[in-house]
Design brief:
Elements (H helix, E strand, L loop, with lengths): L7 H10 L4 E5 L3 E2 L39 H4 L2 H9 L2 E4 L6 E6 L2 H10 L4 E4 L4 E6 L5 E5 L2 E4 L5 E2 L9 E2 L2 H6 L28 H16 L5 H16 L7 H12 L5 H15 L2
Parallel strand pairs: 6-10
Antiparallel strand pairs: 1-2, 1-3, 3-9, 4-6, 4-8, 5-6, 7-8
Helix pairs in contact: 6-7, 6-8, 7-9
């Protein structure tokens, strides 16, 4: 990552060239709002900027979901207008296979230094960003002064930082787990994909990112939880179920996310089996 300059678009192009999806940010470190055609989800996609949808808006009005690595998009007329008003550059950490632990104050930094493995750090206005290799579900306020920004989130680019980047540790993943007082997640075995097919994974982060996004899709469901769990299982299996890369650990993570929403182990197993049957696995 390169040092920010007075020209946010130049920084954005440099980041995009290294595989980091970027977007312009307005004053206050916030994305540009929806254009009239996309207001109130009129475009039919990306509701509340949480899940990418069918919208093909060429502008920058869908926050993290608009982040791109395509130079032609970054210099397009609709983006040029945004860059002229931009106060900074944002990026989608999860899209680059990264996780940012956003530490807002001195107490949060002190906690991280005694709890988390050292990694690349970037100074912020009030604290630090700790950046790890690996994507996961994003979640704010995991503890006082600590947010996690990865999939379906954006972070402000503030420079390359210092120190080598470490792999995402379990201690950070655990911070994003939403505990349910109703159900204790139960581990299962023998439900991973059948294997034997061609592996589509470009990097190890590809599978990790897919599982993390599936977990978040389930845990953020506010209604139709049964249907959301089934559709998510179906999506995961359609992408990862044939090549043999799915393990029981991955399946248990998905089941735990579903159980945190009140699903039973039996319901999870039935949904998984039905999804495999639908796909002929």
């Amino acid at each position: 990552m390169t040092q920010p300059t007075l020209y946010p678009q130049h920084t954005a192009l440099s980041l995009a060239a290294s595989g980091v999806p970027v977007l312009p940010l307005r004053r206050g470190k916030v994305p540009f709002g929806n254009c009239p055609a996309c207001a109130d989800n009129a475009c039919g996609g990306r509701p509340n900027m949480k899940t990418p949808g069918p919208c093909r808006c060429p502008g920058v009005c869908h926050a993290w979901a608009a982040a791109t690595t395509e130079p032609a998009v970054i210099v397009s007329p609709s983006w040029e207008a945004a860059w002229r008003r931009a106060a900074g550059v944002g990026y989608h950490p999860g899209g680059a296979g990264l996780t940012v632990v956003d530490l807002d104050d001195a107490d949060a930094i002190a906690w991280a230094r005694t709890t988390l493995p050292a990694t690349r750090t970037v100074p912020t206005t009030r604290g630090e960003h700790w950046i790890y290799w690996g994507a996961m579900a994003s979640r704010n306020a995991v503890r006082p002064g600590v947010d996690i920004k990865s999939t379906m989130a954006y972070a402000r680019y503030l420079g390359p930082g210092t120190g080598p980047m470490a792999d995402l540790p379990d201690a950070v993943r655990a911070l994003a787990v939403k505990e349910s007082p109703m159900v204790r997640p139960v581990a299962v075995a023998g439900l991973a994909g059948v294997g034997g097919g061609e592996c589509p994974h470009r990097t190890p982060a590809y599978l990790a990112r897919g599982i993390a996004m599936a977990e978040q899709r389930i845990t953020e469901a506010s209604s139709a939880v049964h249907a959301t769990v089934y559709r998510t299982f179906l999506a995961v299996l359609s992408r990862h179920g044939r090549c043999g890369c799915l393990t029981d650990t991955h399946v248990n993570r998905l089941f735990a996310a579903a159980q945190s929403k009140g699903e039973t182990t039996r319901h999870c197993a039935d949904a998984w089996t039905n999804a495999r049957t639908t796909l002929g696995l």
